[in-house]
Amino acid sequence: MRLRFVLPFLSCLFLAQVLVAGNGPKVIAHRGYWKTEGSAQNSIRSLERASEIGAYGAEFDVHLTADNVLVVFHDNEIQGKNIQTSAYEELRDLKLENGEKLPTLRQYLERASELDDIRLIFELKSHATPERNREAARLSVEMVKSVGLEKRTDYISFNLDACKELVRLCPDSEVFYLNGDLTPMELKELGITGLDYHYNVLRAHPEWVKEGKELGLTSNVWTVDDLEVMKEMIGLGVDFITTDVPEEALELVRGRSR
Ligand code: MG
Fold it and tell me: Following DSSP, what letter does each residue of 44-72 receive, concatenated?
């Protein structure tokens, strides 16, 4: 049989073995489960929906306002207002696409504390200066602790200053780096506990997942919405898949997908 027929067959066989053995990756709903009725990215509803469908985790994005209020939103601006340079008072009545008001981190975490055990994948966004990144990290960790969710929260960030500060402040928590430009060994040396890279980074460096495992690091991949790419990433051995289509991903890892 020709190699081009044998290789896809072997990779399917490997995938089937991984999934049947229950060793498939855990599914994280990217910005919560928002592609569903009544939801919106990073809304409280998206957190509830991620929990309802049995996702392992809900990812969400956090900015610090100019007057040090942590709020949950992805973009730098909401309805033309820059979050990080605005006072919370200017933002508090702005609405998400599903009609909810812009959630503060406290509101989001308080709702999370009432839900079963969905894991919180806390993305701290980049801020203007190293000092501001460290301040945002400090206030984030304080807030998570004040709601009693430190054991259910993992931190992720594109910003290396933020990651280093999170490692320093909460050495018992998982901290993942998102930017894709550091090797597993470089992450390990910084005390960072996992890589959370775009799938094209892992395609370019497929050995990083295995190298990470050997160093005790876990691997997450974002944002994978195509089932074929999910299968490819499962084949690499990733521990987590972050996706905008968590229901389809759950079907796949539970072995019920085509
Ligand atoms: Mg994010």
Answer: HHHHHHHHHTT-SEEEEEEEE-TTS-EEE
| Distance from Cα 3 to the centre of ligand 1, integer Å | 39
Distance 30 CA to ligand 1 centre (A): 7
Q: For residue 63, report the distance from its CA to the centre of ligand 1, in Å.
A: 11
CA 202 to centroid of ligand 1, rounded, Å: 18
Q: Which residues contact 204 (CB under 8 A, 6 or more apart)?
A: none
CA 123 – ligand 1 centroid, Å: 5
- Give the tens place of pLDDT for each residue, 12-61: 666 666 665 567 899 999 999 999 999 999 999 999 999 999 999 999 99
Does the model's pTM come out above 0.70? yes
